[in-house]
Amino acid sequence: AFVPISGWHGDNMLEPSNNMGWFKGWKIERKDGNAEGKTLIDALDAILPPSRPTEKPLRLPLQDVYKIGGIGTVPVGRVETGILKPGTVVVFAPANITTEVKSVEMHHEALVEAVPGDNVGFNVKNVSVKELRRGYVAGDSKASPPRGAADFTAQVIVLNHPGQISNGYTPVLDCHTAHIACKFAEIKEKVDRRSGKTTEENPKFIKSGDAAIVILVPSKPLCVESFQEFPPLGRFAVR
Which residues form the GTP-eEF1A C-terminal domain (predicted)? Predict the structure, then answer.
């Protein structure tokens, strides 16, 4: 929707303005019900909230782990997919540590359940702070739990790199909250950035502007998922 406004004078922000007689209002036609209005607040209210991937298995990358007196070990992170509830038996990949969630909190309030998008802290039983670290991923031990990857196949687009990248190159990958060096074990093929079609098999190197399918081997255990199943855990940046 197009809404002409003046933030300085408040025109069309909360109430229709008399200074814009030419503007007759905005309209949106969509499957989920049409919407119309004249002001910015109407347009914001008409935005449909995105559907959250609650039906998928739980994935929660850890941002930090705290030790809180009287409570114990509290990992913190954002729920990417699935639902986290007190009583859930979670597994932390790639370390494969299993424990029960005692409580889940967001902004110092206890939650019955945490859904995708929630930044939560959750208290776990019988696990020390030293056993967990940023970059681990929590999942439900009984429903498609996360696992570490020995290697994985990825599409890499080289946006800006001073030289050539060949087999054996080992940059640092930022994948969800993990920060781990990964080796380009094999550059399998160059592909067209737009169509995805193969342009060259087993190239000797790739450079700025190229896209390629590459087998990557993490230097330390890393939890990475297929982009089709878990997009937040299937994308990464190479630095």
Answer: 152-239
| CB neighbours of residue 128 within 10 Å | 10
Burial, 15: exposed, middle or buried (Cβ in 10 Å; 0-12, 13-18, 19+)? exposed
Cβ-based neighbours of 109, under 8 Å, separated by 6 or more: none
Topology (CATH) of 59-146: Elongation Factor Tu (Ef-tu); domain 3 (2.40.30)
Integer Cα distance of 107 and 7 in angstroms? 32
Which of these, 62, 57, 236, lies nearest to 153 by C-alpha position? 236
* Residue 1 pLDDT greater than 80, yes or no: no
Please indicate, yes or no, whether the overall pTM of this predicted structure exceeds 0.90. no
Other beta carbons within 10 angstroms of residue 222's beta carbon come to 26
Total residue count of the chain as it appears in this document: 239
Residue ranges, CATH 2.40.30.10, the chain: 59-146, 149-238
Tokens 């169509």 correspond to what residue? 195
CATH 3.60.21.10 fits 149-238, yes or no: no
DSSP class of residue 5?
-
| DSSP letter assigned to residue 231 | G
| Residue 216: band (very low, low, confident or very high) from pLDDT cuts 50, 70, 90 | very high
Measure Cα distances from 175 to 135, 145, 194 in Å.
8, 18, 23
Place of tokens 């930022």: 174
* Alpha carbon 22 to chain centroid, angstroms: 43
Residues facing residue 237 across a β-bridge: 174
State the chain's maximal CA–CA distance in angstroms.
67
